[in-house]
Amino acid sequence: MGETAGNPSAAGAARDESTLADARASFQSLVRTIWRLRQPDGCPWDREQTHASIAGNMIEEAYEAVDCIESGDAAHLREELGDVLMQVVLHAQIAADAGEFTIDDVVRDLDEKLVRRHPHVFGSAEGARDADAVLDIWDEVKRAEREGRNAAEDGAASTDGADAEPASEGLLDSVPLAFPALMQAQKVSKRAAKAGFEWDTVEDVWDQVASERAEFEAEEPGSDARSLEFGDMLFALVNVARKEGIDAEGALRASTAKFRRRWAAMEGIARERGERLEDLSTSELNALWDGVKGGE
How far is CA 3 from each of CA 119, 130, 140, rounded to the nearest angstrom? Predict the structure, then answer.
């Protein structure tokens, strides 16, 4: 689509074009390689794949890239981003072979969406003061897009007969069900909050956590009801994180990584002593844990 005139307030701003890569040749070479693998004389494995058969690979590759980001491993991040890109191009080729869409459609749609959702950069909208203002603009554009899709779908339904049900998209429908549970909970609660379904203060949310805990403890241990109440308690805690400006998914990942790091250190100490953690008592394990924790 290309860059538009841009925001007048940003006119004349210095831009470092030394970081603007020309990936036309390398990207087209990748597209051709994936296409070649899917040909009759290509790779039997690649030819057999469908969107469904490799859906899990997209998630795995994305998480491996996140691991590199969190560990600050730029060299491996380059490789893992390539693996993520391979999934995108392979899915696009599968779609092209089925007559659904092509990688060109994917790239063009993305470019158009980015331009459309940044009117403060590519359009005539007033420049955003800060990152929060950008998010407000982004949400407003997405809301308009959703309303436009709903209007189009409702119009299509009305032409199919009087009994046809409109297929309008709800506020939460675009939050993927495949998201990790904490991430999904935070995104869902954030959207509901923007619509006005919100606690006044973080203290109010802590009160909700206490209420959910009481309901959890009132249920029979091991029952489905107790499990559901535990989920409600977690959901309330996610809202505490949201109110505090904390990414719940990232916070839990960081805590889990810290636990794994400390446990590995404990295993190392035990090996040096000729011991196994499995053979130690709870008090001995706690002493090892405190020692590792204190040495950080």
Answer: 12, 22, 22
Polymer length of the chain: 296
User: Considering the chain, what is the average pLDDT of its residues?
Assistant: 89
CA dist., res. 266 & res. 281, Å (int): 13
Cα 275 from chain centre: 41
Put simply, whether the predicted model's pTM sits higher than 0.90 gets the answer no
Query: Rg of the Cα trace of the chain?
Result: 25
Taking the C-alpha atoms of residue 199 and residue 185, their distance in angstroms, rounded to an integer, is 16
Strand, coil or helix: what is 69? helix
pLDDT in tens, 202-259: 999 999 999 999 999 999 999 999 999 999 999 999 999 999 999 999 999 999 999 9
Cβ contacts of 195 within 8 Å, gap of 6 or more: 171
Structure tokens at 97: 């072979």
